[in-house]
């Protein structure tokens, strides 16, 4: 994995921006760190508690369904999906990780809404820890940054019409 994620930078988001964060309960010891990083980064960039909603789902496979339900409310400027899928000894990893990614992308495209893929897909728990605030950056913070930058881009494009 590249250690060269874009740097966090101030963004010009609308004052009424709202973000939904959907997180998997599976591998909670990793996902909780992603949630903390994501929520802290959103707050750092000016979103208060009334602008951010956290929703929990059982596992990464359920993230796209929750994202779709949230997108259909038309209340959010972006949705951040957080989870952690660690490869095991069976092909289960391939199905869960692949379908979560496909489903999240499908929601983003069908709803014309930033839906951010903040799901770690690693071979080992150590790799997941490294990407949840360890030596390989912080995927929760990076997902928040991506959401904010996409909110800004969408606002700029839609305002130009």
Textual characterization of the structure:
The protein is α/β, with parallel strands linked by helices and 161 residues long. The chain is 47% helix and 18% strand. The chain has a single domain, classed as Lumazine/riboflavin synthase (Rossmann fold), CATH 3.40.50. It is built from five helices and four strands, in the order E-H-E-H-E-H-E-H-H. Strand 3, helix 3 and strand 4 form a beta-alpha-beta unit. The model has no long low-confidence stretch (mean pLDDT 93).
Q: Can you name the CATH architecture? A: 3-Layer(aba) Sandwich
CATH topology category name: Rossmann fold
State Rg: 15 Å
Strand content: 15-25%
Largest sheet: 4 strands, parallel
Provide the CATH superfamily: Lumazine/riboflavin synthase
Helical coverage, percent range: 40-55%
Strand order of the largest sheet: 2-1-3-4
* Total domain count: 1
How do the helices and strands line up, and which of them pair or pack?
Elements (H helix, E strand, L loop, with lengths): L18 E6 L3 H17 L7 E6 L5 H10 L5 E9 L5 H20 L3 E8 L2 H7 L7 H21 L2
Parallel strand pairs: 1-2, 1-3, 3-4
Helix pairs in contact: 1-5, 2-3
């Amino acid at each position: 994995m590249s250690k060269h994620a874009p740097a966090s930078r101030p963004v010009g988001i609308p004052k009424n921006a709202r973000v939904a964060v959907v997180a998997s309960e599976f591998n909670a010891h990793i996902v909780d760190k992603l949630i903390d990083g994501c929520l802290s980064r959103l707050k750092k960039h000016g979103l208060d508690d009334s602008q951010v909603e956290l929703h929990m789902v059982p596992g990464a496979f359920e993230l796209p369904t929750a994202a779709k339900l949230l997108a259909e409310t038309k209340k959010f400027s972006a949705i951040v999906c957080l989870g952690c899928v660690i490869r095991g000894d069976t092909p289960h990893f391939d199905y869960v990780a692949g379908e979560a990614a496909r489903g999240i992308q499908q929601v983003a495209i069908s709803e014309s809404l930033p839906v951010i893929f903040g799901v770690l897909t690693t071979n080992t728990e150590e790799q997941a820890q490294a990407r949840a605030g360890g030596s390989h950056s912080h995927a929760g913070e990076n997902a928040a940054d991506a959401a904010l930058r996409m909110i800004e881009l969408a606002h700029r494009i839609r305002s130009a019409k």
